[in-house]
Amino acid sequence: MVYLLPFFTVMIWGGNAIVNKMAASAIEPSAMSFYRWFIALLILTPFCLPAVIKQRHVIRPYLSKLACLALLGMVLNQSLGYYAGLTTTASNMALITSLVPLISVFLSVPLLGKSISKLSIVGGLISLLGLAFMLGHGDITYFFHQDMTQGDSLMLLAAFVYATYCVLLKRWKMPFNSLTLVYMQGFFSVIMLAPLWLTSDHLLPSQEALPMIAYAGIAASIFAPLMWVKAIDLIGADSSAMFMNLMPVVAVALASTLLGEEVHLYHIVGGLFVISGVILSQIKVRRKSSKHTQELSSATIS
């Protein structure tokens, strides 16, 4: 039964890719980003604010780092995702997002001083091959003679930004629990996103957008991170991390079922290459240190 925790977490994250796409036609990206964290902050405040006040002297030295993490992981990453939804498919969004663990491995070299294995390099090449095959609709030379669509480019940038967030989250150890960490980042996110929200044509969300805001703000921003951390505690980082590779599969299946997106052979083949490359790049990490793997898995919470 404990394996249902990471499974349902991945289901929520996969569903969030669908919400990103659906939100593109229902609410402006700046407003969606703002309301997502405004709702999450509103719900978390009664549970987190007393602890934050009590620990204010402990938290204060880390405020600049918390603000930086909020900018990367919650403002830029998610805003780019919502803007990408205007010009790309939910399937592409999910498959590109699955590159985050791989990018994190490579960013760990300059930011954490980690060495990179030959398997990681091979895995990176395999994933890039799969990405080119998918985006080029079966043409592996896609990157050499075509420009990426705006939506795919934004999602690739979002993946890079979020991978940076994941690595910095591991580098900057903070002496407070995950809930406080999420709450403080959400606080800074709302402050940063408020000016963008105020430039929106419609400040109040439409009735159509309300379920999407609720899903992103409650399920994806609160329940999923908490369930993921609990899953790591119960079954370990190694087992939990393997479930992450199901996320693009779930998203593509939901996109086909709920949005009517066609799943082509190049999606399947390209997706398998991307996921295989990611798994291959992480093999040495898991064997080398279970502690490092736990940090890597914990940092992939979105």
TrEMBL record:
The chain crosses the membrane at residues 33-53, 65-84, 90-112, 119-138, 150-169, 181-198, 210-229, 241-259, 265-283. InterPro entries: Diverse_Substrate_Transporter, EamA_dom, EmrE-like. Pfam families: EamA. Keywords: Cell membrane, Membrane, Transmembrane, Transmembrane helix. It is a multi-pass membrane protein. GO terms for cellular component: plasma membrane. The keyword Transmembrane helix applies. Its main location: membrane. It comes from the Bacteria. It is found in: Cell membrane. Residues 3-135, 151-280 form the EamA domain. This is Multidrug DMT transporter.
